[in-house]
Design goal:
By secondary structure, the protein is mainly beta. The chain has one domain: Maltoporin, Chain A.
Length: 668
């Protein structure tokens, strides 16, 4: 009996539990936003050495690699050579650089073995997270000390001097848990394979203490020291010398109440250069004429939230966020700072057994712009178990960064001998920020479906979306050839859809396939003009045998597109194009094939065995009740059935009708 049930359960795909959409845990089919999950097994089997490569499998997500160390990630038509509209978090703590609008994907202060899962939300989410949750949100959730007990070592290498290594040690002592990790990554430049393009050293520590059966305290911190980074910052390239990022985080959780305080800091000395084809024509300096410029930015943040049940059908979440940002650099007009305060509330109403309505609203105050209201409304309809339809509408904002508001640099044009320009064209002009900028805005509508087939071994998902984007911030030439940040008066309507499947064909074979399509109609011009591939395809097969052999093959197709690359020639300074070969705006379509083969020398299936034993025990108990079927994967993924899961972005979601769920607490 037990063996038969175990075999049956192994052929069921489990529905994921996510916390990114509502800041508390819920089955993915009940999330009010479009969410996709990447597990630690997906990361391991992919053989990837960086997170953007792993994220390529998510339908509708767009990945652009500019250099060996510079990635841009966005969703649904929002990607550009400098993407600044995707909020990225680690365990609910933002790693999006507010002061410059950057995410340094190669400098995230956690190593790949530490990651438990990645939750990806596509679409605006300012109703929950405030500013910068524009195109979507990515939350990287790490493993607890209990889940990583022991020592883990990882090392990899490849072409272009690529090295990726990590060492993690974790353990528990009574109610106290700890996790320590170090990592090192490096790669050579693409343009000069003998020169170092990127190298980073990471250190991370996390401690947790169970104060009681219902409360815990977590303290963590980390540092990433990078001796070189070449990447895009707006319309220029930053050649950074020893940039470093550090953070400290304290979290207290008591039942459905959570408070978190964190700090993050960034320091750098960078040489700012224009497009590589303009290096002989232009030089960029700070206001003092220096080409190497110091940067120092700090962010202080406090989050508070609480969730409660009202009557039997309402789940209420409310909270507040305060953030202080500061930036010091010779590339801005003065030491700059800003304060932000956000208040949010969400009600999840179980209107009927098959119908749930979620309504949320957030108000954000900002010292440099007018306050913004960010609503979200979602309707979820489940006509039968395992099949869910959803409709949603939401709005989001991205405020101007401190750099966009206070930039103060100089561009000097020098015409080399022999170029057919009039000899009188040679000048120095300012490039400036503006304190008159309004926030960028997006309004989004979405309809979707997900359902389970083939005895819960096949999941089908399909979504349609429409985004209206306005007030994008970009550079414009002003009088005298100077350049200034302004809000573009145009707009863009981006619409499309995604469809995909995930399946478990047998105990040793699984796979996925998806397709994404999008169209852009716009009146934007210059550097803010949107560009995105019309079609993208992702597919993969994975196999894992009892003898230790495993493998994965994945295929990605990205269609051709056009980006506003040549516009940077006339944005930084008034340069005639005669005699200058501008870079092409068009990026051709491409195909990417990834192959991985692995062998496990030591068979360690304790974790999998634990999960199977728990499920078999649940099933055996159910035999004595009226329903003799195995528990559905949807039921097993509900928080009530998974008390060992730690919520990284909020408090646990109780079931509306069960008192026992209100007593369930995430255990470390």
């Amino acid at each position: 009996m037990t063996s038969a049930v175990s075999n049956e359960l192994e052929l069921l795909k489990e529905e994921e539990t996510v916390s990114i959409a509502s800041r508390y845990e819920q089955p993915i089919s009940q999330a009010p936003s479009n969410v996709y999950v990447i597990t630690d097994e997906d990361i391991r089997q992919s053989g990837a050495i960086d997170l953007p490569t792993v994220l390529r499998r998510v339908p509708g997500l767009e990945i652009m690699q500019m250099t060996g160390g510079d990635f841009n990630v966005s969703a649904r038509g929002g990607n550009q050579p400098f993407a600044n509209k995707m909020l990225v978090m680690v365990d609910g703590r933002s790693i999006y650089g507010d002061v410059q609008g950057t995410v340094f994907w190669k400098s995230i202060p956690v190593t790949l073995p530490e990651i438990k899962r990645i939750e990806v939300l596509k679409g605006p989410a300012s109703a929950m997270y405030g500013f910068n949750a524009f195109d979507g949100v990515i939350n990287i959730i790490t493993k607890s000390p209990e889940e990583m007990k022991g020592t883990t070592l990882q090392f990899g290498g490849g072409e272009l001097g690529t090295i990726s290594s990590a060492a993690v040690h974790a353990g528990t002592i009574g109610k106290f848990g700890y996790r320590l990790s170090i990592g090192r990554d490096q790669t050579q430049q693409w343009r000069d394979r003998d020169a170092l393009g990127f190298r980073s050293n990471k250190f991370n520590v996390q401690t947790e203490y169970a104060l009681s059966s219902t409360s815990k305290l977590q303290v963590s911190g980390g540092l990433v020291d990078t001796n070189r980074y070449d990447g895009q910052v707006g319309e220029v390239t930053s050649n950074s010398i020893r940039p470093s990022l550090a953070y400290a985080n304290v979290l207290y959780e008591q039942g459905a109440f959570l408070i978190r305080a964190w700090w993050s800091g960034y320091t750098d000395n960078a040489t700012i250069t224009p497009n590589s084809q303009l290096v002989d024509l232009l030089s960029i300096t700070d206001r003092n004429g220096q080409s190497t410029n110091p940067f120092s930015g700090n962010t202080y943040n406090v989050d508070v939230q609480h969730a409660t049940n009202l009557w039997a059908t309402h789940r209420l979440l409310y909270g507040a966020t305060y953030r202080h940002n500061s930036l010091s650099s010779t590339t801005i007009d003065r030491f700059s700072r800003e304060d932000r305060l956000g208040l949010f509330i969400q009600d999840e109403w179980r209107a009927a057994s098959s119908l749930t309505i979620v309504a949320g609203l957030r108000y954000d105050l900002h010292t440099q712009i007018t306050g913004t209201w960010s609503p979200r409304v979602a309707i979820l309809y489940q006509p039968v178990e395992g099949h869910t339809f959803h409709l949603s509408g939401s709005a989001a904002y991205r405020p101007p960064t401190l750099f966009e508001s206070h930039q103060d640099q100089r561009v000097t044009t020098t015409l080399p001998t022999g170029v057919p320009f009039p000899p009188s064209i040679s000048s120095t002009v300012p490039i400036s920020g503006s304190t008159r900028l309004a926030p960028e805005q997006i309004i989004s509508y979405e309809a979707g479906y997900q359902g389970w087939y083939w005895k819960h071994r096949l999941r089908v998902r399909a979504d349609l979306f429409f985004n209206h984007v306005s007030d994008l911030i970009g550079s414009r030439i002003t009088s005298g050839g100077a350049s200034e940040f302004v809000n573009d008066q145009g707009s863009a309507d981006i619409y499309g859809g995604e469809a995909g499947i995930e399946f478990l064909a047998s105990r040793w074979l699984s796979g996925f396939a998806n397709y994404a399509y999008e169209e852009i109609g716009q009146s934007f011009s210059g550097t803010v003009k949107r560009g995105a591939p019309r079609s993208k395809v992702s597919a993969g097969l994975r196999t894992e045998w009892d003898n230790g052999l495993s493998g994965e093959i994945s295929y990605y197709y990205v269609g051709a597109t056009t980006y506003p690359i040549a516009q940077t020639f006339t944005t930084l300074a008034s340069i005639p194009t005669t005699g200058v070969i501008a870079p092409g705006d068009r990026v051709d379509s491409y195909n990417l094939l990834n192959l991985r083969v692995g062998y496990r020398f030591w068979q360690q299936k304790a974790a999998a065995g634990y999960m199977r034993d728990a499920e078999v025990a649940h099933y055996s108990t159910a035999q004595g009740r009226r329903d003799s079927r195995p528990p559905s994967p949807s039921a097993r993924s509900h928080p009530h059935a998974s008390r060992g899961r730690h919520l990284r972005t909020g408090s646990r979601r109780p079931d509306h009708l069960r008192e026992s769920d209100r007593r369930s607490i995430a255990r470390i």
